[in-house]
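Morning run. Coffee first, then this:
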Amino acid sequence: MNVKVEDLFDPAGKARIVARVRALRPDSRPLWGTMKVAQMLAHCNVGYEIVHEPGKHARPGIVGRFFARLFAKATVVGDKPYPRNGPTAPAFVIKDARDFATERDRLLGFIERTFEQGASHYDRLPNMTFGVLSSEQWNAMFSKHLDHHLRQFGV
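And here it is:
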């Protein structure tokens, strides 16, 4: 089964994802997993923080990058959906309570900023774990991750 990847660099694709994020509520409950909705939003923000807030998250060591490229890259940027309850990189683990509105608004801001920068900004942009990615790979990574967690919360 292949996942439909929204084009976050396209106005219609971005609008569909934004509508799904806006459909979340502070009391939305997961269909699987243990994260609360605000934690999930904070978790999704990490991928954008890595790009838009350089230095906020430590770059994985060389061994971690090697294994991530070998075992995770195809899943992260490919066309297969993420498995439920799959492994999560340490930087993405959110254990503390978060504020729903703050995390939702941050995520919507990151989505908008990414859209405004456009696909050409991301083409051949290095990712600190996976190396140089095409704009299509960046889009797949962002879009698939959002879709996975939005489905987790039923939107």
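Strands lie at 125-127, 131-133. Good start to the day.
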